[in-house]
């Protein structure tokens, strides 16, 4: 966590791209390393990850995670599912609301299909990057409950990376402490003293579109040879 870049509680990023440039400076020690791969969690994590990958000269890919919404209250996460089928459940919410195993399976099946659709949409036939033995920097535009990032980290274990680094522009102190124990390295630019939502750390928090994700992935592929050289 950096105290020199953001010292006041009301400091905000202009947008996700600026947040990515801030994180890139905090990840400078990974610049030019051939074992580094940057993964953005779509959609909002991809513009952040693009700036990091560009600055570090590293390849960029997506790693998909979908929230499992409580039936009838889909904005409330009862868990998340990630590429490869890894599921993380919020047992507290499930128990408190009495959510059935059938409802959980139905949500996981539905969101699993959406994961497949989005992978096809974003990669457009390109294979996923090989993560075996790599240092993987996993990027989102912020942590709130952390369910999506937890699912991503659990799913990533199946790919046998040598090291996982979580990089986010903003997170509450509680999530910062949790993820500092869950990953090899956590890089977070700001931890607001009163955290209500990820968007409070941005002046422009416009929703990232599927087309923007596709465009950034294509741009990363085109620009990397020149950056790497």
UniProtKB/TrEMBL annotation:
Gene3D superfamilies: 3.40.50.2020, PRTase-like. Residues 18-169 form the Phosphoribosyltransferase domain. This is Phosphoribosyltransferase domain-containing protein. Pfam families: Pribosyltran (PF00156). It comes from the Bacteria. It comes from Streptosporangium pseudovulgare.
